[in-house]
Specification:
This protein is α/β, with parallel strands linked by helices and 270 residues long. The protein has helices at residues 24-32, 66-79, 93-102, 133-139, 156-165, 175-180, 214-223, 245-268; strands spanning 4-9, 52-57, 83-87, 109-113, 145-149, 168-170, 187-192, 228-234.
Amino acid sequence: MTRVALLGLPTDQHSSFLRGAAKAPPVIRAALRSPHAHLTATNGLVLDEGLLNDLGDAPLREDDGDFDRMLSAVREAFSAGPAVVLGGDHAVTYPILAGIAATGRAPPQIVHVDAHSDLYEDFEGDPLSHASPFARIMERGLASGIVQLGIRTPNAHLVAQAQRYGVKVFAPHQHAAGLAALPKAPTYISIDLDGLDPAYAPGVSHHEPGGLTTREVLDVIWNTPGPVIGGDIVELNPDRDINGMTAVLAAKLLKELVARVAQDAISSSG
Protein backbone atom coordinates (compact mmCIF):
# COMPACT_ATOMS: atom_id res chain seq x y z
CA MET A 1 0.00 0.00 0.00
CA THR A 2 1.29 3.46 -0.92
CA ARG A 3 1.77 5.67 2.16
CA VAL A 4 1.15 9.40 2.01
CA ALA A 5 3.32 11.53 4.27
CA LEU A 6 1.69 14.25 6.39
CA LEU A 7 3.90 17.17 7.38
CA GLY A 8 3.05 20.23 9.45
CA LEU A 9 4.66 23.63 8.85
CA PRO A 10 3.55 25.69 11.86
CA THR A 11 4.47 29.23 10.84
CA ASP A 12 2.72 32.55 10.32
CA GLN A 13 5.62 34.99 10.48
CA HIS A 14 4.80 36.20 6.96
CA SER A 15 1.10 36.85 7.63
CA SER A 16 0.10 40.39 6.69
CA PHE A 17 -2.94 40.86 8.95
CA LEU A 18 -3.49 38.49 11.90
CA ARG A 19 -1.23 35.86 13.41
CA GLY A 20 -2.61 32.49 14.51
CA ALA A 21 -2.19 30.14 11.54
CA ALA A 22 0.95 28.66 13.11
CA LYS A 23 -1.32 26.94 15.64
CA ALA A 24 -3.25 25.04 12.96
CA PRO A 25 -1.48 21.70 12.32
CA PRO A 26 -2.17 20.05 15.71
CA VAL A 27 -5.73 21.42 15.68
CA ILE A 28 -6.40 19.84 12.28
CA ARG A 29 -4.88 16.53 13.40
CA ALA A 30 -7.10 16.57 16.50
CA ALA A 31 -10.20 17.18 14.37
CA LEU A 32 -9.21 14.33 12.03
CA ARG A 33 -8.86 11.93 14.96
CA SER A 34 -11.85 13.20 16.93
CA PRO A 35 -14.34 10.58 18.20
CA HIS A 36 -17.08 12.35 16.24
CA ALA A 37 -15.22 11.83 12.96
CA HIS A 38 -14.33 8.86 10.78
CA LEU A 39 -11.32 8.10 8.60
CA THR A 40 -12.96 6.69 5.46
CA ALA A 41 -12.73 8.92 2.38
CA THR A 42 -15.05 9.17 -0.60
CA ASN A 43 -13.12 6.56 -2.59
CA GLY A 44 -13.25 4.06 0.29
CA LEU A 45 -9.66 4.44 1.41
CA VAL A 46 -9.17 4.57 5.18
CA LEU A 47 -6.62 6.96 6.66
CA ASP A 48 -5.12 4.45 9.06
CA GLU A 49 -1.43 4.04 9.84
CA GLY A 50 -1.01 1.87 6.76
CA LEU A 51 -1.97 4.76 4.50
CA LEU A 52 -1.02 7.94 6.36
CA ASN A 53 2.54 8.46 7.59
CA ASP A 54 2.41 11.42 9.97
CA LEU A 55 5.87 12.99 10.14
CA GLY A 56 4.81 15.56 12.72
CA ASP A 57 5.72 19.23 12.45
CA ALA A 58 8.95 20.64 11.10
CA PRO A 59 11.07 22.26 13.86
CA LEU A 60 10.50 25.88 12.85
CA ARG A 61 11.69 28.90 14.83
CA GLU A 62 9.90 31.83 13.15
CA ASP A 63 13.20 33.29 11.97
CA ASP A 64 15.02 33.73 8.66
CA GLY A 65 16.25 30.14 8.71
CA ASP A 66 12.76 28.69 8.48
CA PHE A 67 12.63 28.77 4.68
CA ASP A 68 15.52 26.32 4.45
CA ARG A 69 14.11 24.23 7.31
CA MET A 70 10.79 23.93 5.46
CA LEU A 71 12.49 23.17 2.15
CA SER A 72 14.56 20.43 3.77
CA ALA A 73 11.57 18.85 5.55
CA VAL A 74 9.51 18.87 2.35
CA ARG A 75 12.37 17.46 0.27
CA GLU A 76 12.70 14.58 2.73
CA ALA A 77 8.95 13.93 2.75
CA PHE A 78 8.54 13.95 -1.03
CA SER A 79 11.72 11.94 -1.60
CA ALA A 80 9.95 9.00 0.05
CA GLY A 81 6.71 9.39 -1.95
CA PRO A 82 3.63 11.62 -2.10
CA ALA A 83 2.87 14.05 0.71
CA VAL A 84 0.29 16.52 1.98
CA VAL A 85 1.32 19.52 4.06
CA LEU A 86 -0.54 21.47 6.74
CA GLY A 87 0.17 25.18 7.21
CA GLY A 88 0.69 27.63 8.60
CA ASP A 89 -0.07 30.60 6.39
CA HIS A 90 0.09 30.49 2.60
CA ALA A 91 3.72 31.60 2.58
CA VAL A 92 4.60 27.91 3.09
CA THR A 93 3.66 26.96 -0.47
CA TYR A 94 6.79 28.60 -1.89
CA PRO A 95 9.29 26.53 0.15
CA ILE A 96 7.09 23.48 -0.42
CA LEU A 97 7.42 23.80 -4.20
CA ALA A 98 11.13 24.51 -3.80
CA GLY A 99 11.41 21.34 -1.73
CA ILE A 100 9.58 19.32 -4.38
CA ALA A 101 11.97 20.69 -7.03
CA ALA A 102 14.91 19.66 -4.84
CA THR A 103 13.82 16.02 -5.17
CA GLY A 104 14.42 16.24 -8.92
CA ARG A 105 10.76 16.14 -9.90
CA ALA A 106 9.61 18.12 -12.92
CA PRO A 107 7.65 21.28 -12.03
CA PRO A 108 4.01 20.27 -11.49
CA GLN A 109 0.86 22.11 -12.40
CA ILE A 110 -0.76 23.88 -9.44
CA VAL A 111 -4.47 24.04 -8.70
CA HIS A 112 -4.99 26.83 -6.19
CA VAL A 113 -8.21 27.45 -4.22
CA ASP A 114 -8.26 30.86 -2.53
CA ALA A 115 -10.06 34.17 -2.13
CA HIS A 116 -6.77 35.85 -3.07
CA SER A 117 -4.43 35.16 -5.98
CA ASP A 118 -1.29 35.62 -3.81
CA LEU A 119 0.64 36.96 -6.78
CA TYR A 120 1.89 40.23 -5.29
CA GLU A 121 5.38 41.08 -6.45
CA ASP A 122 6.36 42.40 -3.01
CA PHE A 123 3.60 42.84 -0.45
CA GLU A 124 4.33 45.51 2.18
CA GLY A 125 8.07 45.08 1.72
CA ASP A 126 8.03 41.30 2.29
CA PRO A 127 8.76 39.22 -0.82
CA LEU A 128 8.05 36.07 1.25
CA SER A 129 4.62 37.33 2.34
CA HIS A 130 1.67 34.96 2.32
CA ALA A 131 0.33 37.33 -0.35
CA SER A 132 3.27 36.55 -2.69
CA PRO A 133 4.09 32.80 -2.84
CA PHE A 134 2.83 32.20 -6.36
CA ALA A 135 4.86 35.10 -7.76
CA ARG A 136 7.97 33.52 -6.24
CA ILE A 137 6.99 30.07 -7.52
CA MET A 138 6.41 31.24 -11.08
CA GLU A 139 9.48 33.48 -11.32
CA ARG A 140 11.65 30.52 -10.27
CA GLY A 141 9.95 28.09 -12.64
CA LEU A 142 8.83 25.83 -9.79
CA ALA A 143 5.43 25.18 -11.43
CA SER A 144 4.53 24.55 -15.06
CA GLY A 145 1.23 26.44 -14.71
CA ILE A 146 -1.42 27.56 -12.23
CA VAL A 147 -5.21 27.40 -12.26
CA GLN A 148 -6.81 29.49 -9.51
CA LEU A 149 -10.41 29.06 -8.32
CA GLY A 150 -12.53 31.11 -5.92
CA ILE A 151 -10.55 34.31 -6.52
CA ARG A 152 -12.57 37.38 -5.57
CA THR A 153 -10.10 40.13 -4.59
CA PRO A 154 -8.61 41.30 -7.90
CA ASN A 155 -6.83 44.60 -8.43
CA ALA A 156 -4.85 45.98 -11.35
CA HIS A 157 -1.51 44.71 -10.04
CA LEU A 158 -2.79 41.18 -9.49
CA VAL A 159 -4.46 41.07 -12.90
CA ALA A 160 -1.18 42.17 -14.48
CA GLN A 161 0.74 39.56 -12.49
CA ALA A 162 -1.63 36.81 -13.62
CA GLN A 163 -1.12 37.87 -17.22
CA ARG A 164 2.65 38.06 -16.74
CA TYR A 165 2.86 34.48 -15.49
CA GLY A 166 0.04 32.98 -17.57
CA VAL A 167 -2.06 32.14 -14.52
CA LYS A 168 -5.66 31.11 -15.24
CA VAL A 169 -7.92 32.87 -12.73
CA PHE A 170 -11.58 31.98 -12.04
CA ALA A 171 -13.96 33.78 -9.69
CA PRO A 172 -16.59 31.82 -7.74
CA HIS A 173 -19.30 32.57 -10.31
CA GLN A 174 -16.99 31.06 -12.96
CA HIS A 175 -16.49 27.80 -11.07
CA ALA A 176 -17.80 25.52 -13.83
CA ALA A 177 -15.33 27.06 -16.27
CA GLY A 178 -12.60 26.65 -13.67
CA LEU A 179 -13.35 22.96 -13.28
CA ALA A 180 -13.19 22.57 -17.06
CA ALA A 181 -9.73 24.19 -17.06
CA LEU A 182 -8.18 21.85 -14.48
CA PRO A 183 -4.88 20.45 -15.75
CA LYS A 184 -4.26 17.00 -17.20
CA ALA A 185 -0.75 16.58 -15.80
CA PRO A 186 0.98 15.92 -12.48
CA THR A 187 -0.72 18.41 -10.18
CA TYR A 188 -0.22 19.92 -6.75
CA ILE A 189 -3.40 21.20 -5.03
CA SER A 190 -3.08 24.17 -2.65
CA ILE A 191 -6.18 24.97 -0.59
CA ASP A 192 -6.41 28.23 1.33
CA LEU A 193 -9.43 27.87 3.61
CA ASP A 194 -10.51 31.45 2.92
CA GLY A 195 -11.25 30.29 -0.61
CA LEU A 196 -14.46 28.96 0.91
CA ASP A 197 -17.21 31.34 1.94
CA PRO A 198 -16.91 32.42 5.60
CA ALA A 199 -20.21 30.63 6.25
CA TYR A 200 -18.25 27.37 5.80
CA ALA A 201 -14.87 28.56 7.08
CA PRO A 202 -15.11 31.31 9.69
CA GLY A 203 -11.79 30.33 11.27
CA VAL A 204 -9.52 32.27 8.91
CA SER A 205 -7.70 35.56 9.24
CA HIS A 206 -9.19 37.14 6.11
CA HIS A 207 -12.98 36.84 5.80
CA GLU A 208 -14.06 37.37 2.19
CA PRO A 209 -17.79 36.78 1.55
CA GLY A 210 -19.01 35.22 -1.67
CA GLY A 211 -16.71 32.21 -1.72
CA LEU A 212 -16.89 28.56 -2.69
CA THR A 213 -18.92 25.89 -0.92
CA THR A 214 -17.45 22.80 0.68
CA ARG A 215 -18.92 20.67 -2.09
CA GLU A 216 -17.31 22.85 -4.77
CA VAL A 217 -13.88 22.43 -3.17
CA LEU A 218 -14.40 18.67 -2.88
CA ASP A 219 -15.23 18.70 -6.60
CA VAL A 220 -11.84 20.33 -7.23
CA ILE A 221 -10.08 17.55 -5.32
CA TRP A 222 -11.88 14.73 -7.10
CA ASN A 223 -12.34 16.25 -10.59
CA THR A 224 -8.77 17.43 -11.19
CA PRO A 225 -7.56 15.12 -13.99
CA GLY A 226 -4.13 14.87 -12.41
CA PRO A 227 -2.48 12.73 -11.30
CA VAL A 228 -2.43 14.63 -7.99
CA ILE A 229 1.05 14.31 -6.47
CA GLY A 230 0.47 16.23 -3.24
CA GLY A 231 -1.00 19.38 -1.78
CA ASP A 232 -1.41 21.68 1.15
CA ILE A 233 -4.16 23.07 3.37
CA VAL A 234 -3.35 26.48 4.82
CA GLU A 235 -4.60 29.55 6.69
CA LEU A 236 -6.71 27.96 9.41
CA ASN A 237 -6.62 30.43 12.30
CA PRO A 238 -7.92 28.56 15.37
CA ASP A 239 -8.22 31.85 17.27
CA ARG A 240 -10.98 32.89 14.86
CA ASP A 241 -12.83 29.59 14.62
CA ILE A 242 -16.39 28.95 15.85
CA ASN A 243 -16.98 25.65 17.66
CA GLY A 244 -14.10 24.13 15.73
CA MET A 245 -16.11 24.05 12.52
CA THR A 246 -13.25 25.26 10.28
CA ALA A 247 -10.89 22.74 11.86
CA VAL A 248 -13.39 19.98 11.05
CA LEU A 249 -13.65 21.31 7.50
CA ALA A 250 -9.85 21.29 7.19
CA ALA A 251 -9.76 17.71 8.47
CA LYS A 252 -12.39 16.68 5.91
CA LEU A 253 -10.44 18.28 3.07
CA LEU A 254 -7.24 16.66 4.38
CA LYS A 255 -8.88 13.23 4.41
CA GLU A 256 -10.14 13.59 0.86
CA LEU A 257 -6.90 15.10 -0.46
CA VAL A 258 -4.78 12.33 1.09
CA ALA A 259 -7.13 9.70 -0.35
CA ARG A 260 -6.97 11.28 -3.81
CA VAL A 261 -3.16 11.44 -3.70
CA ALA A 262 -2.97 7.83 -2.52
CA GLN A 263 -5.38 6.66 -5.21
CA ASP A 264 -3.30 8.28 -7.95
CA ALA A 265 -0.03 6.93 -6.50
CA ILE A 266 -1.49 3.42 -6.40
CA SER A 267 -2.69 3.73 -10.00
CA SER A 268 0.68 4.99 -11.25
CA SER A 269 2.52 2.13 -9.53
CA GLY A 270 0.50 -0.33 -11.56
